[in-house]
Amino acid sequence: MLENAHLSEGVAVAKQRVTIADVAREAGTSTASVSYYLNDKREKLSEKTQAKIARVIKELGYVPNAQAQTLTGKQTHVIAIIILDNTNKWAGLVLNGMEQVMLPAGYQTVVCTSNFNPETELMYVDKMLSLGVDGFIIQPTANFKAVHDRIKRAGKPVVFFDAAIYSPGTSWIKTNLYDGVYNATQALLDAGYEDFFSIAANMTEMRTRMERFQGYAEALAANGQLYKAIPIDHNKPSINELTEYFKYKFNPAKRTLIFVQNQWALPRVYKALQPMAHLLPQQIGLLGLNCEDWTNLTTPTVSTIIEPVDQEGREAAEMLLALLDGSSQPGEQRILECKLNWLDSTSI
Asked: How far apart are CA 193 and CA 85, in angstroms?
């Protein structure tokens, strides 16, 4: 067996990488037999030989070299997923959808977070290519063209999600946030709301943020209405600051609608409105995005526009599998419709 070596000064030396030759020597077989085992050509081996090789691989902790597999054209059955932010509920749902498809198909996933940084995104692409991943599923930054071109040159398939990329030969999937927000806003205008607030994070970081903002603003503009904008991030404004703002900015002579465009901000806004909860929904309407896990449990319950996030993840994975097995060609584009979930915080 291979053991860790130690310098005389007591500094540990990293354990040597176990090779096919090491496995063959310990199992008492040829390197060709080990190669057959690793490459799923086990019909060439007896059950006894297979068992010996499997035991030694486990004992030695042998791991196939991904870069060597790449050089020989072998699949690694590993998929890289690059996401903008993995700290929210939305990310968990979309990643779960991808795993539901990839794991049964025999693929493992590696999740990388770009944090909205194009340089980090491209760094992860290069790193994953060097490790020999079979393909990519990416929620892109604004640098999507450079990313797509890099992956295409490497001969790997890629599916983008949560973004519409109007470039020939690009595969992508997204939800139809524009129409979902536009239709919800129009319904609330028809219900008699007259004064409007938009609470949203920085829209330049994500195309989908801009899309839902445009759906809201353009529905209002089509009806001759304006809105008041309240910028928000993960720290500011606080619950108390929002409560004070609402107290002084609401017009009691008009029915007011608040649209919270980021699902992570909805709980904060909801808590800020608690001192005025008796005014919902007749005087104040509240509309959010997603958050199905809690919006039907509160009093009052909260109306939301719901994206089919889990479905988006599943279909993105299915699209990549189709590219991998050759049953589809690059260029497929899918748009999934949102659902309007009207509850007690709006009078619809």
From this structure: 34
Domain boundaries 78-175+310-336, corresponding CATH code: 3.40.50.2300
Residue type, 59: E
- Residue 78 three-state SS: strand
For residues 130 and 75, the answer to whether their CB atoms sit within 8 Å is no
Question: Helix, strand, or coil here: 206?
Answer: coil
The single-letter DSSP state of residue 6 is B
Q: Say whether 202 sits in a helix, a strand or coil.
A: coil
**CB-based contacts of 32, cutoff 8 Å, min separation 6:** none
Domain 177-307 sits in which CATH superfamily? Answer: Response regulator (3.40.50.2300)
Q: Which CATH superfamily is domain 1-63 in?
A: lambda repressor-like DNA-binding domains (1.10.260.40)
The average pLDDT across 206-225 equals 95
Any idea which of 12-26, 69-83, 142-156, 330-344 has the lowest mean pLDDT? 12-26
In terms of Cβ atoms closer than 10 Å to its own Cβ (0-12, 13-18, 19+), residue 8 is exposed
Chain segment 140-152, per-residue pLDDT in tens: 998 989 999 999 9
Helices and strands per DSSP (H, E), number in the chain: 12, 12
Residue type, 238: S
The per-residue pLDDT of the chain, averaged, comes to: 90
Is residue 284 classed as helix, strand or coil in its secondary structure? strand
Query: Any idea how long the chain is?
Result: 348
User: What does the pLDDT read at residue 40?
Assistant: 74
Compute the chain's Rg from CA coordinates: 27
Angle between helices 89-102 and 309-324 (to 10 degrees): 40
Contact 265, 237 (CB under 8 A): no
